[in-house]
Amino acid sequence: MTKQRKAAALISGGLDSLLAARVMQEQGIHVEGINFYTGFCVEGHTHAIRKKDRQKEKRNNALWVAEQLGIKLHIVDIVEDYKQVVLNPKHGYGANLNPCLDCKIFMVSKALEWIKARDFDFIITGEVIGQRPMSQRKETMPVVADESGAEDLLLRPLCARNLPETLPEREGWVDRQQLHDFSGRSRKPQMALAAKFGFEDYAQPAGGCCFLTDAQYSVKLADLWRARGDKQYEMDDIMLLKVGRHLRPAPHFKLIISREEGEGNFLRGYRHQYPHLTTVSHPGPLALIDGDVSAADIELAARLVARYSQGRSEEEVVLAFTNIEGHQKELKVRPLQPHEIPREWVI
Amino acid sequence: MKRKIIDCRRLLCPMPVIRVQTAVESLPDGAQIEAICTDPGVLTDIPAWSRINGHKLIEAREEDGEYIVVVEVDHGMQ
Question: Is residue A219 in a domain?
Answer without folding.
Answer: no
